[in-house]
Amino acid sequence: MRRYRRLIRVVVPVGALLLLLAFLTGCPKKQAAGDVVARVNGKAILRSEVEKYYNNQTAGTPQKPTGEAATSLRLNILRELIDNEIMMQRAEKLGLLATDAEVDNKLTEIKAPYTAEEFDRRLKEKSLTVEDFKLDLRRNLTVQKVLNKEVTSKISISDADISAYYNERKAEFNLIEPQYHLAQILITAQPNPQVRNLKNSKAQSEAEARAKAQMVMNRLESGEDFASVAMNYSEDAQTANNGGDMGFAPESSLKSMAIQEPATRDAILRLKPGETSGILAVSAGRQVLGYRIVKLVGKEPAGQRDLSDPRVQQAIREQLRDRREQLLKAAYYETVRDEARVENYLAQEVLKSAK
Asked: Is the pTM here over 0.85, yes or no?
């Protein structure tokens, strides 16, 4: 049942889109001379900024957009830049601009999975400087601080809200098949720059992966907590920071696993709640891709779940909070846009060209 799966919801504010593109595709440098395509409360946004993001977003594509598609993309990019400027000005009024220390700490966190040489190389490939990257980090952190103060901190979910949601959707909490709550520690046999474990530990070869898997197994057998070991050593970018927690999987999903990973599936079915498997090879044909250790955190039988179940209450609370947060953030952006004086000259150019 999906309510029992781990709810992983990434809330990306409008102004954060450019940050997410920053490291992967580059970000704008300092303003250069050029035509002003918009103003936000008198603050200019230059055509060169729009073009830089446009080039970054279309780099490497088999066929770059042309005509109306290209114009539409430029208008969308400008809208993002306008929203960014509105939020930065709002943050300045509220005294919520990200500090140098906050920016430096975030930069350190992002750099952690890479060696200094790897990080510098990735910057160079995108014609970025550290200062370029920090500018986008500062903007994203600032927007998050504003939204946390103005929106997120004001959200409250009552017990009555939870009860009403449950009564309206009671059938959703009726499990039609058993559910397996799983966690894993994954070690890959290939260099993985996306590793996000606390020790920044990553195997570089199949031999290293096998040795690391045995080291992890030794720690578990000596009594170390599975979640702590996963956070320190797992190379699964999706679950390492959650202590390896994979959420709930229906029993039927194990049947499909039997085709690709029969050893893993058989190991899971043999486990009792709280037990951990041995070291399981992850393979593609004869090639070993890595190793995993699986823990059966718990098993839920089929049947109706009551509102008194704390897990049901938590799942509903998270769902309601996420929905309310999305709604209020959208309304907040509309409000601050209405309060700003925006002049979009690029949009005016597009309209004039249609005459």
From this structure: no
CATH number of the domain at 10-154+322-353, out of 1.10.260.30, 3.30.360.10, 3.10.310.40, 1.10.4030.10?
1.10.4030.10
Cβ atoms 268, 277 nearer than 8 A: yes
Q: Which two tokens stand for residue 89?
A: 């000005």
The average pLDDT across 25-30 equals 38
Q: What is the C-alpha separation between 239 and 292, in angstroms, rounded?
A: 12
Please check whether residue 322 is in contact with residue 304, taking contact to mean a CB–CB distance below 8 angstroms: no
List the domain boundaries for the chain. 10-154+322-353, 177-301
Q: With the C-alpha atoms ordered 47, 49, 52, 53, is the resulting torsion angle positive or negative?
A: negative
pLDDT-derived band at 89 (thresholds 50, 70, 90) equals very high
Residue 190 has pLDDT above 80, yes or no: yes
pLDDT for the residue 161: 96
Judge whether residue 3 has pLDDT over 70.
Answer: no
Distance CA 109, CA 104 (A): 9
- C-alpha 35: how far from its chain's center? 35
DSSP track, 238-275 = TTGGGTTEEEEEEHHHHHHHHHH-HHHHHHHHHPPTT-
Q: How far apart are CA 276 and CA 282, in angstroms?
A: 16
Q: Does domain 177-301 have CATH number 3.10.50.40?
A: yes
